[in-house]
Design goal:
The protein has about 160 residues and is an alpha+beta fold. It contains four helices and five strands, in the order ααβββββαα. The structure holds zinc ion.
């Protein structure tokens, strides 16, 4: 009788888990391990970046809108703390998959392509939104290329 731990199905399941983006980091150590990986790929090795998981709701400083992640940085020092919200089942019903690794890449891209602190004018909010759409597209492109998955992976619909 073959060792169950080494059965084809088990090994395949393990590999599939390994080669999919992490949905929810189990602890800060796992988050920071992924953070280092993506930090290097994004040529951010001259930055000091710390990752923190939090169960407190994160919100946009300007609009108060709820956020999945937040990048608090001092550009001149090339220092940043990235906060990722740990969902308390409140993202289960969302039509877009909640994916910590994607949010992490998005927040790291903020260190790379920083948007100047947007004001509250219509033009500033519009620019902020347009920049964020591009930034999230880039984060998804990187995740899709890394894990060889399609855009449909991000959908909870169907
Ligand atoms: Zn953002």
């Amino acid at each position: 009788m073959p060792d169950e731990a080494l059965s084809f199905e088990n090994v395949q399941a393990r590999l599939e888990r390994q080669y999919l983006p992490v949905l929810v980091f189990k602890d800060g150590a796992e988050m920071n391990e992924k953070l280092r990986y993506w930090q290097r790929l994004l040529f951010l090795d001259d930055w000091i970046i710390k990752g923190e998981l939090t169960s407190e709701r994160l919100s946009d400083d300007t609009t108060g809108a709820p956020l999945r992640g937040k990048c608090s940085m001092v550009q001149e020092l090339k220092a940043a703390t990235i906060y990722l919200y740990v969902p308390q089942s409140d993202f289960d019903e969302e039509i877009v998959k909640f994916c910590h690794e994607d949010i992490l890449v998005h927040e790291l891209l903020h260190c790379k392509y920083n948007i100047l602190e947007a004001g509250t004018s219509y033009e500033a909010r519009h620019l902020d939104l347009r920049e964020h759409v591009l930034l999230e597209e880039m984060a998804r492109s990187l995740i899709m290329a890394r894990y060889n998955i399609g855009f449909e992976w991000f959908s909870n619909v169907g």
